[in-house]
Amino acid sequence: MADSARAYWRISALTKLGSHTGMARTLAFFSQHRGKLLVLCIWLTLLPLAEPPATAMGSRPSPAAGSRPGVNTPEALLVQSLLDIQNNRLDAALKHINTLLSMRPNFRLAYLIKGDLLTARMRPIATIGNAPGGPVNRLADLRDEARVRLQHYLDPAPLDMVPEYLLQFDPSQHYAIVVDTSKSRLYLYKNDRGTPRYVADYYITSGKNGAEKLKEGDQRTPVGVYFVVNDLPKAKLSDFYGVGAFPINYPNEWDKRLGKNGHGIWLHGVPSDTYSRPPRASSGCVVLTNEDLKNVEQFIQVGHTPVIISNDIAWIGRKAWQSQRAAFLHDMDAWRRDWESLNNARYLSHYSPQFSNGTQDLAAWAAQKRAVNASKTSVKVTLSDVSIFRYPGKENLIVVTFDQNYRSNNLSNQMRKRQYWMQDGATWKIVYEGAA
Amino acid sequence: MTSSRIASALAITAFCFAAASLPTRADELQDIQALVKQGNQSQALDRVNAYLVSQPKDAQARFLKGVILTEQHKTAEAIKIFTALTEDYPELPEPYNNLAVLYASQQQYDKARRELEMAIQTHPSYATAHENLGDIYAKMASQAYDRALQLDKSNTAAQTKLSLIKEIFPINGRYQRPLIKPSTVVAVAAKPPVVAAAPVAAKPAEKIVEKSAEKTPEKPEEKADIPKQDPDAAILAAVNGWVSAWSNKNVGAYLRHYAPDFKTPKGEPRDAWEKMRKERSNAPKKIIVRLSGIKVSVKDERHASVTFRQHYKAGGFSSSTIKTLVLIKSGDKWLIQQERIGA
After folding, report:
1. Chain A CA closest to residue B113
2. Are residues A171 and A308 in the same domain?
3. A175 close to A305: Cβ distance less than 8 angstroms
4. Cβ contact (<8 Å) for B149 and A131?
5. A74 and A168: one domain?
6. pLDDT number for residue B179
């Protein structure tokens, strides 16, 4: 009886709101019944660490003009609706959801929220996704999507800092992609005369079983520094991949060395029957909504664009970024100069005992270098188009790629090279070197 | 549940637009309604059409026709009729409600919702519309969930559509609910089987009104209908006396509730009107009249008006109508000076 009376309350209050009375009345109504309307608490329990939404939104660092999703992007509308729910404005929430669904009629999560908002007009609801008898895993997926999308707004990335990976672009790289698998987010950075500048970010789907891919079929997304190596047009793809796909070079040199395997890690879109996929759903690929992929693809340069995948982006301030970059450049230039000096001991001191290029360990490499250098009277090495990316994950690694112009008394050559450097105490040592 | 049940369910919401009109009209409409209940829709339609030739504006007949067409699954025509009724009588909730039934049967839940919200806007305590709206929300929620979770229910869509009407409109049962709501004034002439469950039937009207005031917090949407200030007990007593005299078929007592200067509905002479009322009251075996959502507004010491929803049931006929009584105080008694349909 008490329940049905409550239901009447709700219907009548919401109907009145829908017809003629103002927001204030409904707000008063809901605040009166705050304790009873469990729906209001959900979002709080859902986001135990979230700050109050108003201040969280307000304190968001103001990004570069025009780079943030505007008020009417699908995600902004979704988030607005979720915040409306948190603030007891169920009617406004439904209005936002309806606007969103008219824009993106295949946004499944929006339908779930809509279902909840309608259900809440009849009875208090205790969780997101009240669909009676709905498949448990699909409900869980959509709840996860709601959580990560909302969390992104409530606990925004520190955009006044930069991902520590982007130490240096090479001039031909106009943009870089940084992925955060734990937050289901992809960040787009522009090469602004050598320094990374934030452009935009997007919701993504990553591997079913999380990050740190190890082997074929483990349904994980790799963590590392990769590059886009191909562009597969829509015509070549099944609908499953959406509007396009960009394979990356997993497994890279370091992965192979660690014995990681598997293949076919792509950035790609979603099937036409859905706006987005749950946060953890792919077999390891990074999946964007079709509209977001369309946005991102205009910035992708096959063979150049780095895709750095982390399971939790490390952000550093500009000063730290500068000093880390300077320290590394110093070590790298020392290597180049020591090579030119033809002092083998100094030159080889830049190589780590763990060095391996896949065929040679440090001893073999050192022997070969000594032999080569013995025939030299002069060596000149210049490096250009150098990119420097810190490697995400536990190991302290840096990947550098550059054009090496080598001139000596009896041989000259030009090549694109890639090295992996590992931090060893205060300095950086080379653990891998090979053609890029 | 058969389709004829649905029709009768719909028909029950038919309203008596002018309770005090000609007996022949009421007889004819009662007959037609009986035909509808028997499932004889084509004959009912012929007769209601014939009736409408002479009385093209008659709201009750038009409503009845809408119900018949609904029963005959002539949805588009039924929608036309009910839509026209909402235009001509925007204050009546029933046509909105039945439009919602029809839209819901076409799975146009959003349209159905709008109609129900209109019904509730005209009558915030209209329980049928509230419950139907709840069902519409449920249906819309379920649709949204299906899309969210990619549940393909297209195979069962047709089935859902049929059972939907039944589900949303077991009006027979549903319609009873507002009648037995605590805030309803009840007076019954005989023990009617239909409302045997109504526990308040035998109690004095005044007490029931008091009781309703106690119970209102449980059904807060009713609260809006009851003035915040204590209703004038004498006025309520007069209205209750009038209802119980009518229900008891005590024509003398009934007529004594009307002021000497009572404005007869069509301006007919007082004795012609009294004669008609006597005939109307004596014709059915029993009459059940209940009032709900009573609003008293006192103009001054001698003038007041009372608005309520009148639930009338006699023979096979039932109606639910908003009525206003204009009252004048004569000595220590409040008498009816004017009786009209609508708020």
Report:
1. A15
2. yes
3. yes
4. yes
5. no
6. 28
Pick the CATH number of B3-177 from 1.20.140.10, 1.25.40.10, 3.30.450.40, 2.60.40.10: 1.25.40.10
**Which residue, B235, B175, B248, is CA-closest to B209?**
B235
Residue type, A268: H
The mean pLDDT of B233-257, rounded to a whole number, is 84
Average pLDDT over residues A150-165: 93
Q: Which of A2, A7, A9 sits opposite B134 (nearest CB)?
A: A7
Question: In the predicted model, is pLDDT for residue A322 greater than 90?
Answer: yes
CB < 8 Å to B149, chain A? 108, 112, 131, 134-135, 138-139, 142
**pLDDT, greater one: A219 or B289:** A219
Considering only CB atoms, which residues of chain B are within 8 Å of chain A?
Answer: 117, 120-121, 124, 130, 133-134, 137-138, 140-145, 147-151, 218-221
Q: Do B150 and A108 touch (CB under 8 A)?
A: yes
Q: Which of B149, B168, B221 to mutate to test the interface with A (most CBs of A within 10 A)?
A: B149
Nearest to B149 among A12, A116, A138 (CB): A138
Q: Do B147 and A118 touch (CB under 8 A)?
A: no
Q: How far apart are CA A261 and CA A255, in angstroms?
A: 7
A16 touches chain B (CB under 8 A): yes
> Measured between alpha carbons, how far is B266 from B21 in angstroms, rounded to an integer?
9
Question: How far off is chain A from B134, nearest CA to CA, in Å?
Answer: 6
Give the residue ranges of DSSP H helices in B13-156. 23-38, 41-54, 59-71, 75-88, 93-105, 109-122, 127-149
Span A53-64, pLDDT tens digits:
332 333 333 333
Q: Which of B116, B133, B136, B145 to mutate to test the interface with A (most CBs of A within 10 A)?
A: B145
Angstroms from B43 CA to nearest CA on chain A: 40
With CA atoms as reference, the chain A residue closest to B219 would be: A5
Looking up residue A415, the CATH number of its domain turns out to be: 3.10.450.50
- C-alpha–C-alpha distance, residues B42 and B46, integer Å: 6
Q: Which of B117, B121, B145 is facing A115, going by the closest CB pair?
A: B145
Query: Could you read off the pLDDT of A86-133 as tens digits, one per residue?
Result: 888 888 999 999 999 999 999 999 999 999 999 888 888 777 888 888
Helix axes A74-86, A90-103, angle to 10 degrees: 170
Of residues B133, B145, B219, nearest to A112 (C-beta): B145
| pLDDT tens, position by position, A246-284 | 999 999 999 999 999 999 999 999 999 999 999 999 999
CATH number at A308 reads: 2.40.440.10
A287 and A367 share one domain: no
Site of tokens 């009307």: B258
Last residue of a domain, one of A135, A154, A173: A154
The span from the CA of A307 to the CA of A268, in Å, is: 13
CB of A277 within 8 Å of a chain B CB? The answer is no
**A9 close to B (CB below 8 A):** yes
Chain B environment of A134 (Cβ under 8 Å):
145, 148-149, 151
User: How far apart are the C-alpha atoms of A400 and A423, rounded to whole Å?
Assistant: 14
User: What does the domain layout of chain B look like in residue ranges?
Assistant: 3-177, 180-341
Q: What are phi and psi of A183, to 5 degrees?
A: -100, 5
A270 touches chain B (CB under 8 A): no
Cα–Cα distance for residue pair A242/A289, rounded to 1 Å:
8
Q: Are residues A183 and A146 in the same domain?
A: no
Q: What does the DSSP 8-state code read for residue A212?
A: -
Residue A22 belongs to domain spanning: 2-154
CATH class as words, domain B180-341: alpha beta
| pLDDT on residue A70 | 54
Q: Model pTM?
A: 0.64
Does residue B274 or residue A101 have the better pLDDT?
A: A101
